[in-house]
# Entry
Amino acid sequence: MSTDPVPDGPPGVGETPTGGEGPATATPPTETGPATAGGGAGSGRRRRDLPAAVLIGVLTLLLGFAFTVQVRNSDDEQVLAGAREEDLVRIVDEVSSRGVRLRELIADQRSALRQLTSSDSETASALEEARTRAASLAVLNGTAPARGPGLRLTVRDPDDELRVTDLIDVIQELRGAGAETMQFDGVRVGLSTAVTGVPGALMIDGRPITAPYEVLVLGSPQDMETALNIPGGVVQAVGGRGGSVAIQQEPDLVVDALRPLPDAQYAAPDTED
Amino acid sequence: MIPILGLVAGVLLGLLLDPTVPLWLQPYLPIAVVAALDAVFGGLRARLDGIFDAKVFVISFVSNVVVAALIVFLGDQLGVGAQLSTAVVVVLGIRIFGNAAAIRRHVFRA
# Structure
């Protein structure tokens, strides 16, 4: 543009209506008019145009620079730093109301989370309790093997004199002394265990047993031994029929005979409690 | 040619240096850029009209920028900075549109 062929004089005047260079339009006619009045004064124009070209270059360079910087600047969050007070107030308002909404949301989610975790832990502890109960019930019922301290009894009956009631006495005496579970000659004794038969051919739960009967019972060894040995108790009664009871305390006994779990035909669990 | 080179060089410089705008300049920089754009469009139009004058261009460029920034500065001092900068942008925008229309008539003959 520095080599603009058009004489400078008239353009200054002609430029005014364009409005492109508002405040400066007043000066050109007076300044540039005389300088280029000759029209073809080539050397004079060159001398004057060089600094102008440099200035134009510098200005446009500045414009490009500022433009880029501004575009970059308004891209990121820093735009807030240049915002005006009222804009900032509005932004703060929006942000804080949004913050309130989000905080309410957080509170909701938190309480939901708390409910879920508490119900979860309740469920877990209930499940744990149920498992423990099921395990102890299984031991009582004889549907699961059990181990622990107890007694090993060997009941001898050389004369085949022991009756059903004698064996029931043994079982009851042991239960009374705190026996938790037992097996009688390989048959687990449970809630509904029945002793049947005649002396010499006794049966427990319908399964024949033969003397000597080996009884494994879990419970407090001392208590049960004392209970069996009381005067007039099981040991004496068996001895009175020509038999004998050998009692051996065992610190770690395994009762692994199992009973099938009877299906309740009439009774159903009452879950309302 | 020089203005185009200058613009390109400026854009490249801005991209390369990527400076942060000082805080005090931040309200004025966008206005100044718009004012300078107006001057550039005016210059382009004058050039197409065959009436371009380097001196007029330089002075109008500088004064446009200074006056626009001054108006915004005054507005900020008076508490109407936002409105005044909007006004400046609107006015400059109208002028840019007018110049762009003139340029368009030159380029497309329509």
Observations:
- The radius of gyration of chain A is 54 Å.
